[in-house]
C-alpha cells in the first residue's frame, strides 16, 4: 500500500508534519496505482473513522474483521456498474451502538459520478429498501452552466411518489418552487425535455437498466 498524508483541507503533507497536527487524514492507495483503498481519519493520534473501498476480489468478512481491530466507527463502500449506471452500496458501522450496519444504496450515472440520482436505505433484516426513505434527484444546469438538482423527489411506503419539488423556474427562491404528487406527475413530465418516468416510483434503477 502507498500512504499519503493530508490535512483536513485535503492538501498533501509530509508524515512529519501530519503527526504534529491534532487532526489529519491518512490515505491508502494500491501499490503503483491511484486506486484508493482506505482513508483513516485521525485525531490526537487516534483513528475515529475509516472509509474503506471494497473491491470485488476481496472477502468482506475479512475486511470487516480488519476494520474492527482499528476502529469502532467505519464504513465499507462497494461499487458496481450496470448499463450506464454506478451502484454504490455503503455499510456504516458504529460498533459502540450496534453490531449491525446502516446500509444504503446510491445510484449515479456513469457519465456523472458526482451527482446521485437515487439514494435508498436498506432494511438490515429483509435486505429490502425502505421505500419511504428513498430520495431521487433530476439535474439540469443553471444560467451559469452549473449543474444542480432541479427536481427532488420523496416517496411513500408503497414506493409511489409522495412529493416532487421542481426548482427549475427559480432555484434560489423556495416560494416559487412547484410541487407535484403521484396523481399530478404528468404535469411535471410535460414540462421536462426528457422522459422522467423513473422518478414516479422509488425503483432503484431506470427500466432500461433492468431490461439488460
In summary, what is this structure?
Helices cover 12% and strands 47% of the residues. It is mostly beta strands.
Features:
about 210 residues, 4 helices, 2 domains, 13-stranded mixed sheet, mainly beta
Write the layout of secondary structure elements.
Blueprint: E1 2-6, E2 12-13, H1 15-18, E3 23-29, E4 36-43, E5 46-54, H2 60-68, E6 73-82, E7 85-94, E8 98-109, E9 112-122, E10 135-141, E11 147-155, E12 161-166, E13 178-180, H3 185-191, H4 207-211
Parallel strand pairs: 5-6
Antiparallel strand pairs: 1-2, 1-3, 3-4, 4-5, 6-7, 7-8, 8-9, 9-10, 10-11, 11-12, 12-13
Question: Could you walk me through the main structural features you see in this protein, from its secondary elements to its overall organization?
Answer:
The chain has 212 residues and is mainly β. Helix content is 12%, strand content 47%. It has helices spanning 15-18, 60-68, 185-191, 207-211, and strands at residues 2-6, 12-13, 23-29, 36-43, 46-54, 73-82, 85-94, 98-109, 112-122, 135-141, 147-155, 161-166, 178-180. It has a 13-stranded mixed β-sheet. The longest helix is centred in the N-terminal third of the chain and has 9 residues, at 60-68.
Amino acid at each position: 500500500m502507498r500512504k499519503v498524508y493530508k490535512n483536513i483541507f485535503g492538501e498533501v503533507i509530509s508524515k512529519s508534519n501530519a503527526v504534529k497536527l491534532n487532526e489529519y487524514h491518512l490515505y491508502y492507495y494500491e501499490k503503483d496505482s491511484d486506486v484508493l483503498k482506505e482513508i483513516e481519519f485521525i485525531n490526537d493520534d487516534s483513528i475515529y473513522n475509516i472509509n474503506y473501498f471494497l473491491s470485488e476480489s476481496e472477502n468482506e468478512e475479512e475486511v470487516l474483521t480488519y476494520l474492527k481491530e482499528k476502529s469502532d466507527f467505519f464504513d465499507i463502500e462497494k461499487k458496481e456498474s450496470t448499463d450506464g449506471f454506478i451502484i454504490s452500496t455503503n455499510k456504516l458501522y458504529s460498533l459502540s451502538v450496534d453490531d449491525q450496519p446502516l446500509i444504503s444504496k446510491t445510484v449515479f450515472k456513469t457519465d456523472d459520478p458526482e451527482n446521485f440520482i437515487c439514494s435508498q436505505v436498506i432494511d438490515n433484516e429483509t435486505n429490502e429498501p425502505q421505500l419511504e426513505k428513498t430520495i431521487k434527484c433530476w439535474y439540469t444546469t443553471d444560467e451559469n452552466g452549473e449543474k444542480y438538482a432541479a427536481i427532488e423527489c420523496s416517496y411513500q411506503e408503497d414506493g409511489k411518489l409522495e412529493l416532487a419539488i421542481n426548482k427549475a423556474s427559480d432555484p434560489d427562491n423556495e416560494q416559487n418552487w412547484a410541487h407535484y404528487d403521484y396523481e399530478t406527475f404528468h404535469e411535471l413530465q410535460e414540462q421536462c425535455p426528457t422522459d422522467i418516468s423513473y422518478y414516479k416510483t422509488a425503483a432503484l434503477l431506470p427500466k432500461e437498466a433492468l431490461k439488460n
